[in-house]
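Obj: model holo form, ligand = zinc ion.
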Amino acid sequence: MERISYSYDPVTLAMPLAERIKRRALETGALPEADDVRDILRELGLEELYTGKGLALHRNRHLVTLLFPREALIVDVIPSSGELSDAVEVIAYHDRELGAFVVEIVPANDLEYEGNIGLEPAIIDEKTLELKSSPVFGHFEEGKDGLHLVIDVETYERWRESGKLNTCPICGGELAWRGREAFCPECGYGVKVKD
Ligand SMILES: [Zn+2]
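Output (holo structure tokens):
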């Protein structure tokens, strides 16, 4: 089991949530049900405060999440300070035209950062269950040099092949690599590749 790091910014929860939804779709050929997502949120250390009427509410010390299971699964991740400008949204849906399951993280405030957090949505072919894109999702771990995003080798290889290795998957800034570790001077997060 990966170590569950303490969640601070919304992105530190959105990333492992998107990663787990992606893995679930790759393994089972379906998106998780709302109840499965509630389980994932609890596994990620959140407490369930409310569920019912098409909505579930979870929180930890720093974050609040709102799960809306509709046509698509939507999880809004909001700082408990109420700073909505930092909020992000994890969206997972079955795109019938594309014939694929899509998992993406988008910032609530797209004025500052256009596009996807994680660089690309996860696009999973509904028939072959192959990943058709190069999303950079992972989980966060705390080290002496602060919180960093941990990704697996497969994610790293796909990212390298996509040619976007110098773009920070968290803020879109420019990453500086040293071996298998990178640091983003803009958002302050690091990235580490682990087997
Ligand atoms: Zn960054």
